[in-house]
Amino acid sequence: MNAPGRTKRRVGPPRRPARPPSADLHVHTTHSDGGCSPGEVVRAAANVGLTALAITDHDTLSAIAVARPEAARLGLELIPGVELTAARDGREVHILGHFVRDDDRGLVAATSALREARARRIVEMVDRLSALGLSVDLEALRRTFPRATLGRKHLADWLVSTGQVAGRREAFARFLGDDGPAHVEKPRLLWAEAITLIRAAGGVAGLAHPPYDLRSNTLREFVEAGLGSIEVDGPGIDARLGRRWRAWADELGLAPIAGTDFHAGDRPGRWVGAVTTPEADLALLRVKSGQWSVKAGENTSQPFTSRSDS
Fold first, then answer.
1. Strand partners, 189
2. Exposed (0-12), middle (13-18) or buried (19+): which is 305, by Cβ within 10 Å?
3. Crossing angle of helices 191-200/105-131, nearest 10°?
4. d(CA 220, CA 249)
5. How does pLDDT run along the chain (310 residues), one tens digit per residue?
6. Nearest Cα to 256, choosing from 282, 275, 290?
7. Cβ proximity of 50 and 275 under 8 Å
8. At residue 45, what are phi and psi to the nearest 5 degrees?
9. Are 258 and 276 in contact, with CB atoms under 8 Å apart?
10. What is the pTM of this model?
């Protein structure tokens, strides 16, 4: 069977006119489950007139170093980021980290452990698919996505490309969904541990795409553990809920952030830069990080010292 083809990918729309300073703070690449390389998302961000971009791959920091030279060439501020997979009371939550040190030993070790557990998970899912009469060439899949932490989307795409299912939706509905016969539980950190790891790496921890039933007392618990930001706008976030979460952010001293949660250019409304964080909110996030502003890959500006994320 042939591995999924690697074709030229759509990352964003044609170049747009000049726009106010803004940043897409939630973007994924081929180093996790995205469909585009670090260089491609950086070029897309510059092409649509963004002034800053955060690469926030799932449980890995490896794309940051790869993207830095291209960001520097284009004069784009690259914000080192990550999205950690965590759990609270058995429910999955995702914790974003912005302005992290991507070489921090503790964070690197934790993400490496998660990826190793994911590697064991993918083998078990392939075994379960085999027992169901399906075939996955795991080595070929690894060669096709040499940097990615393989997951269910990669398996689904393999099944589609090899004609074993009609589409990704069928793959999840019949085999890979949360209740499917080939599903294996994803390894996750404790939510408070994820926040601690990000803060220890010098970053601001943020709640990604909050659940629709988020309660203010739950958010306060996260803030008490060190949460510094909350995503208030993005694909799938209802405008009414976004306004509520922004009000809570103001009340609790959180930085309100936004981004596309970009994975690939095949989903309307999720181009790189389709949803952005305004400069004023980004400035607050920078201040809360307590770090120097890193633009175009260089420490060229003064540190923000007027406020810290305590």
1. 86
2. exposed
3. 140
4. 10
5. 444 544 445 565 545 545 678 999 999 999 998 889 999 999 999 999 999 999 999 999 999 999 999 999 999 999 999 999 999 999 999 999 999 999 999 999 999 999 999 999 999 999 999 999 999 999 999 898 887 778 898 999 999 999 999 999 999 999 999 999 999 999 999 999 999 999 999 999 999 999 999 999 999 999 999 999 999 999 989 999 999 999 999 999 999 999 999 998 777 778 999 999 999 999 999 999 985 444 433 433 332 222 222 2
6. 282
7. no
8. -65, -45
9. yes
10. 0.83
d(CA 2, CA 51): 40
Which residues make beta-bridge pairs with 14? none
- Between CA 281 and CA 279 the distance in angstroms is 5
Domain residue ranges of the chain, discontinuous segments joined by +: 123-176
List all residues 6 or more positions away from 254 whose beta carbon is below 8 Å from its beta carbon: 206, 223, 227, 228, 229, 230, 248
Tell the residue number behind the tokens 């190793």, with chain if given.
116
To 10 degrees, the CA torsion angle through 91, 97, 102, 105?
A: -50
Q: Closest by alpha carbon to 25, among 288, 297, 272?
A: 272
CA atoms of 106 and 66, how far apart (whole Å): 20
